[in-house]
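Action item from last meeting closed. Structure (343 res):
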């Protein structure tokens, strides 16, 4: 199992990808980018990120025209434009978040986080990890174990702390004590425009830790493309083996189709760590299918089989998951993952 490029960044052998994008000129100035249609900007962006498909550390141009914005700044402008008729996630709410409207994720124009701290309870490859828990989520998992952050008042009323200069100072202050900056939640995807802004500032301050994008990966193709040259490690929750289970338990459509598409999309441009939380009554339909797909399509990804499930939030509404895992289910999940070569 390999996350070698992530480790190379952590060892400071190569720079984090967002450092590189911050030093690639976009070929346009800020005013020009702001007035161009989003489709034209995306076309320009997709050309500029092509070197990341060839190397985790593309060459940085020797000359940066003073009046041009960087590729990282171009990403932020595109992401901000997406908010006008929001298509960051595959719920595709289409509402104008810049005008105070909120869609399924409950997040408006500004971004807030519930907490940030040095996490020691993650996978051994990433601890100690500086985790920032953003509010809101693009899913509505009925068993959500972070429901207060994802669906409660923190999400719907701009609760928590603003993602501003104070957060940047906190990130810089913990840099020497951690292996990475771990953006999580809730879910970070819906905060993409307001995460790219602080990353621009962190690049200017020479922050050197790799970026871990810790999400459900339920993003549109244009949004996931903006993470090329930003995310050094995709830590993806692979929840369900079928679209039907995703709709039943997380109230989202086309779940399996979206996450498998996006995992294949990030495979050439980022290291991948996959988490799968085993759910009661879903070993055959979900765990088995996920193990098979990952083994066939992402054999080099780190795979973490998780047994921490406990009934939470609205799990009582679904008799199948309103219980703890049985010993038999745990043993079967381990056999499936082991036989697939994932453990």
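Sequence:
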């Amino acid at each position: 199992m390999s996350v070698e490029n992530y480790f190379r960044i952590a060892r400071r052998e190569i720079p984090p990808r967002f450092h590189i994008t911050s030093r690639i000129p976009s070929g346009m100035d800020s005013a020009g980018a702001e007035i161009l249609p989003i489709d034209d900007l995306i076309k320009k962006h997709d050309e500029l990120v092509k070197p990341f498909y060839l190397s985790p550390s593309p060459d940085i141009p020797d000359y940066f025209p003073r009046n041009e914005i960087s590729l990282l700044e171009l990403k932020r402008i595109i992401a901000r434009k997406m908010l006008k008729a929001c298509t960051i996630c595959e719920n595709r709410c289409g509402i104008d978040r810049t005008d105070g409207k909120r869609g399924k994720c409950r997040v408006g124009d500004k971004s807030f986080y519930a907490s940030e701290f040095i996490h020691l309870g993650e996978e051994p490859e990433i601890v100690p990890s500086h985790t920032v828990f953003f509010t809101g989520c693009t899913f509505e998992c009925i068993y959500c174990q972070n429901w207060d952050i994802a669906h409660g008042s923190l999400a719907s009323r701009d609760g928590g702390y603003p993602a501003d200069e104070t957060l940047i100072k906190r990130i810089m202050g913990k840099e020497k004590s951690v292996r990475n900056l771990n953006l999580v939640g809730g879910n970070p995807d819906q905060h993409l425009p307001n995460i790219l802004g602080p990353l621009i500032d962190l690049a200017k301050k020479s922050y050197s830790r790799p970026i871990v994008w810790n999400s459900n990966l339920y993003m549109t193709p244009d949004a996931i493309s903006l993470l090329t040259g930003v995310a050094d490690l995709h830590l993806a929750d692979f929840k369900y083996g079928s679209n039907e289970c995703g709709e039943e338990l997380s109230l989202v459509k086309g779940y399996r189709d979206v996450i498998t598409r996006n995992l294949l999309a990030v495979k050439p441009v980022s290291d991948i760590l996959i988490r799968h939380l085993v759910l009661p009554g879903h070993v055959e339909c979900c765990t088995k299918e996920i193990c098979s797909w990952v083994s066939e399509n992402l054999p080099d990804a780190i795979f973490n089989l998780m047994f921490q499930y406990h009934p939470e939030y609205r799990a009582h509404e679904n008799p199948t998951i309103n219980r703890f895992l049985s010993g038999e289910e745990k043993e079967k999940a381990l056999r499936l993952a082991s036989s697939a070569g994932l453990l």
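Note appended to the action item: The domain at 4-339 is CATH 3.20.20.70 (TIM Barrel).
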